[in-house]
Design a protein that fits this description.
This protein is 28% helix and 0% strand. With 72 residues, it is mainly alpha-helical. The chain has one domain. This is GDSL esterase/lipase.
Length: 72
């Protein structure tokens, strides 16, 4: 909707005049403010499988399987 980074604070989310990405599965942002599901998937995978956490979160879950915890 114009402005720096295609962001205009005076236009509400969901306004029909707002131009969002055509295919959110191939983009990380709908606009300059809101992330897509694809972006959140990348973030979650980075946390669960690395490289954004050491040790990897899914490794910690696997270590707890003998305690009755759910394994990923």
């Amino acid at each position: 909707m114009g402005g720096p980074y295609n962001y205009n604070a005076s236009v509400d989310c969901g306004n029909p005049a707002v131009i969002a990405c055509d295919d959110p599965s191939k983009n990380i942002g709908w606009d300059s403010v809101h992330l897509t599901e694809a972006a959140y998937r990348l973030i979650a995978n980075g946390l669960m499988k690395g490289p954004y956490s050491l040790p990897q979160i899914n490794t910690l879950c696997l270590m707890n399987t003998s305690s009755g915890y759910f394994s990923i």
